[in-house]
Prior knowledge:
single chain; Ribosomal Protein S5, domain 2; Alpha-Beta Plaits; 2 domains; 8 helices; binds (3R)-3-hydroxy-3-methyl-5-(phosphonooxy)pentanoic acid
Amino acid sequence: MNLLKPFHHFEPKTAVCSWRSPSNIALVKYWGKKGHQLPANPSLSMTLKECFTETEVKFESAPKLFVAVEFEGKSNEKFAGKIEKYLRSLKIELPWIEGLSVKIQTKNTFPHGTGIASSASGMSAFALCLTDYLQSSMDEDFMKRASYLSRLASGSACRSIYGGFTTWGDESDLFASPFEVHKELAHLHDTIVVVSSAEKSVSSSAGHERMTEHAFRAARYVQAKNNFDRMKSALKSGDMKEVGTITENEAMSLHAMMMTAPDSFTLLKPQTLLAIELIRDFRRMSGLPLYFTLDAGPNLHLIYPETDARKIETFIEYELGPISEKIIKDSRGEGPTPC
Ligand code: PMV
């Protein structure tokens, strides 16, 4: 399927498009690629509600590709470089992109470096603006196309296009698909415990690359596929214990892959391990369904259902508050919207 084919001969025009798009948290992790921006294993995530990016893009025809980015009111050369590289990577499918001027104003509702995937919300917001620019109306392929364009910018971004729960690498490797879950799990919380907001030492792209020669590569992909299938069944049947158990196994496997890579690195901090101990003790003693996951960083995402939120949040505030820099409350969201 070539989702961009209808736009191969598009004529650049002047238009302003703006979208708000959320971040997402993977319960089954994408870690390692095959081919160009294709996932080595299927992943599954929950789209967030409060943590999102708002982006406005002015597109115009220009003598050559030009990109300017204003991030939170300040010109940002690094982001402009990333968007320019991304747009150039589309030029086989969209050759006219070489004659496009793109002026972007963007802001996040969450601080940088807090373990909330800003590339997922940022790149999906930009890809939605680009899709909006390409098509004047939202046909049935709009979201698929936006997910396809997001994936080419940042893999995990393709899952932010849909609200609720999303899979990628199941129905297709090219774009993500929405996934219906049991009504009791439809409103999970994700409270983010920021133990360190320092810049991470190794980027996600470098981390994905380190899976290529990894001694445990094949075993990891068998495990990920198995966890993915079990996770889908548990989400469908409303089995929170199974969802939480797999979620934690995925978080630990992701970091184990980093620590055992040929060029090993560690993103966990002592406070991450302390928080994990406290969460496990709390779960054992209270019997309440509180589970953690981690992205490519030291900060914890705490996953729990609405039913036990009050008691769990008291534990988070009193036991994890003192060992963290910041706590950000979020939960399952409904997905992107034009703004
Ligand atoms: O989308 P990327 O290339 O930044 O990779 C994201 C990888 C993880 O966040 C660690 C896992 C995931 O599936 O989101």
